[in-house]
Every structure is written in C-alpha cells, then in structure tokens.
Amino acid sequence: MNDRKNRWFHRRVPEMVRIASAAVMVALATTAPIPALAQTLPLVLKEHRAGTVLSVAVSSDGRTVIAADAGTRFVGAFEADRKTIAWDARTGVVLGRFESECDTWDLAFLPDGKHFLAAQEDGDLILRETRAGRILGRFRGHVGRVMAIDVVPDGRRAVSCGIDGSVRLWDPRTGEQLHAFVDPEPTLLTCVRIDEDGRRVIAGGLDGVLRVYDLERGTGPRRLPGHTDQINTLAWLPEGRALSGGRDRTIRTWDVELGRLLDRIEAGTDVTALVASPGGRRALFGGIDGLVHLRDVDLGRDLSVMKGHTSWIWDIRVPDTGRFAASCGQDGTVRLWPLGPEDVDPRSNLGARRRAPGRPSGGRRGSR
Q1: What's the CA gap between 342 and 299, in Å, rounded?
Q2: Digit-coded pLDDT (tens) for 255-278
Q3: Closest listed residue to residue 119, CA positions, set 141, 152, 95
C-alpha cells in the first residue's frame, strides 16, 4: 500500500509543480506594472525610536526623505542619542543613519539632494552629506537656537531665523553670511520662508506679527499684524501671496506686496505645520490634533483629512514633484501621504515647504 502511495506521489508532484509554475508565469505576464511610489503610499517610517521627530525634509525630486528626532530624555538619568535618518521615499529603505550633535529644529535640502542644511539647538547651521552624514561646513552667526531655515530652488541662497530675533542670509555653498537683519523690536522668531526668486523673506514668531524683508534693498522688517498669538508656520503662494498659521487656531492669507490681509479661516486646532502644493492651489496643514488637512486655498475648504499620527504634528513637506507629502510628529513617526495629479507642478515632472518653538502650548516654529 505504501509503495503505491509513493509511486503516485512521485508521478503527480512534478506535474503539479509544472501547473503551478505555469499559473504564476501567466499571472506575472498579465499583471500591469505598478509605479513603486503608488505601491508604498501611505507609508509609515518608524526608524526613530527615541521620541519626537522635530523636522522632516524631502529632496526636490521626491526621491529622498530625511528627518531628525529630539531624543528621549530621562531627567538626571539618561539622554538618548539624537538621530538624523535618510530614506528612499519610494521604498522606505534606510539610506543613512547618523547622530545629531543636538536637537535639530529644521532641515532643508540643497538642489542636488546629496546635501542638506540643519538648524541646530546650539546656534549653528551645519551642512551635511545626505547618506554619510559627514559634516562639510558649519555656519555661525545666530546666538542661541536656530529655529528655521529655507533654501531658494537654485541653491544660491539660504535664510535662517532664531530665538535671537534675527534673520540671516547665507551662501550655502561657502557658508558666508551675506546679511543679518537685526530687528529693533525683536521677538523670538519661529519660522522663515524665502520666495522662489530669492527677493523677499517672510518670518513669524512669538508676537504674532508677520515680518517682511526685502533682500534686494536690504531693508526690513515691515510688520503685518493680524494673528492674536504666536505664528508657527509660513508658506509662499503664487502672485506674492503667503499663508501663515499659528497658535490662535487660524490660517491667514496675505498679499505681501500690498501688506494686506486677504482671508482668515478657523483651523479648529493650533496650527503647527503648513505647506503649499507646487501650483499653490492646495495647502496641507497639521496641528496638535495629529490630523493632516488637505485644503483648497481658493475655495477655503478641506478636501480631505488624513489620519495616522497619534499626537501633534511638527512638520509637513511636499517635494517639487507634488506627488506626495511627508509629515512628522510627536509620535516618533514620519508618514508619507499620496497626493492627486492636481497637486503636481504643471511646469515640470518634478514644490513646496514650511515650520512650529517649544511645544504647541509653549511655542515652537514654520513650511513652503
């Protein structure tokens, strides 16, 4: 009996294997390829195990994501190493992991995607390699924490702001400080953005006043009051308009050239991160409720609400491709969210960005 079973087994198994292999080949031949990014989004990156992820950045081509955490502190006993991590945005594979010298409050890629700037707690801006993390330059000028940085698309200029109340203009290729705007009525500045032409800078901070700086004339700040509490985050829109969000739970639209408030909406939460899509028709914002809102700027209404973060959001970025957004938060995760074709920059196949000091209840920083 056993001999008959063995003969049947040896006769039938090869045939079954051939049938199964043929079925697999047919399935592979008839399945349409899916773009790598579409397969992976939404994607949750959980490599930061030490605590709050303070900042995230995306390369302009959308291929690389970097994020920096604050580490986990146990008073009087232990302080975890702070990490900056780089990922392949299409696969979620870690490309590089290296220690940060201190808390990194903001990140900004240079156009090549191979280098980035980091705004540090100790007052330095540092230039690092994206994958290896090697420090290539150290830019000094701020006194105390650097809260936010931004880089123009051609990489020729960068701008920073800090708790010293100054806005500083840099050549990121050489580390040379080109100009320092020192406010006669300083406040702790939390966010800064430079326009695409590199002509104007906007900054916001603790006093709720939007400040405008003219880089061509070297003048500023021009003050635009409006918010009733700290401004946490900023974003440029086309035609000289800008968005600001803050602890007063509002998002405001400004005509920066005319110095006029155009619109004010209730966000329903302290707004801690804000970014515009490349065409400027959509904006994403997040707050202490952990939700990411996709909003139509012209219609003034939410198009969708993305749920995933379990605590407040610290940063949101969109690459020049406009195909996805990256957010990070208090829950220690970085999340990549798919965006629709209407959010893609019509000028190319390839923008935008942000930043909120301290905690939402005590203040923090600003996106484009």
Answers
A1: 15
A2: 999 999 999 999 999 999 999 998
A3: 141
